[in-house]
Amino acid sequence: MNCPNGHGTMPLNKIKKKTVFRNEDISVAAEVHVCPVCKLEAGSVEQTAGLQKAIADAYRRKVGLLTGEDIRIQRKKACITQDELAERTGAGIASIKRWEGAHIQTESMDRLLRKALADQNHENDLSGCRAFSIDRVKLVLARFESCLGFRLLKKNDKMLFATKYLWYADMVAYRDLGRSMTGATYAALKYGPQLNNYRDLLTSIQESDTQKAEPLTTEEEALITKICRAFPTSRTAYNAAHKEPIWKNAPIGSIISYSSAIALREI
Ligand SMILES: [Zn+2]
After folding, report:
1. For residue 141, is it within any domain?
2. Do 188 and 142 belong together in one domain?
């Protein structure tokens, strides 16, 4: 880049830019071309846009609003798209895109964004970032059966053993892949982790259709194989689950959250 005043090339400088934005003193680090002779500053279109975003974010940080990056990161953590966040806040998708960029949301919209993201995180903690699919429960169990070489889903079964495999599959998938396999919620019961409200689910699981389930990904299949190798018999899976602090420390009847999956010890 050359100085328009005829002083030759303008080297790229890292500067601390101080400005007043909406009556707030803002200071941001920026990269601009500066003429060594007349001190003229000039930036490329990208640099200028980057600077505007940096100022907007510095301002938002200063007045306690979520920054564009905060919104984007929390939305990703909440496993929702810009579309879904728009739906949950009643804002348009174009607005969500702008707020994740350099536009500044109002205080009331900031509260709505925070609430929607927090509610979603709470929901994810129960479902492991996936809508519950009973067909997928059956599909995952079928995969375990073929990998283990024995039946898990028996007639009138209370799934005392089947659930241990299912629980590990969901928890490990959430921990390692960021998403559970079935979206099931688990409760800490006396005989180990169990599907929440499992009595209501038993018949539906037996009657569900694996053809309707979203097929397992290669990564999911690999995880199931890994769990089969770690726990080759029902008893080993059962005993392992009973050694897990996230079950042992949970009050009987309480939900075992997916965020606790990082504390799994047996696999
Ligand atoms: Zn110059």
Report:
1. yes
2. yes
What is the reported pLDDT for 43? 84
- Is residue 234 one of the residues assigned to a domain? yes
CA gap 191, 240 in Å, rounded: 12
Separation of 50 CA from ligand 1 center, angstroms?
Answer: 23
CA of 31 to the centre of ligand 1 (A): 17
> 11 CA to middle of ligand 1, Å?
11
The pTM assigned to this predicted structure is: 0.76
Q: How many domains does the chain have?
A: 3
Query: Which amino acid belongs to residue 34?
Result: V
Closest by CA to 170, choosing from 128, 200, 198, 141, is 128
Residue type, 237: A
- pLDDT value at 42 more than 90: no
Q: Give me ligand 1 centre to Cα 16, in Å.
A: 20
Q: What is the mean pLDDT of residues 40-48?
A: 85
Where a domain ends, among 43, 63, 83? 63
What residues make up the domain containing 158?
134-263
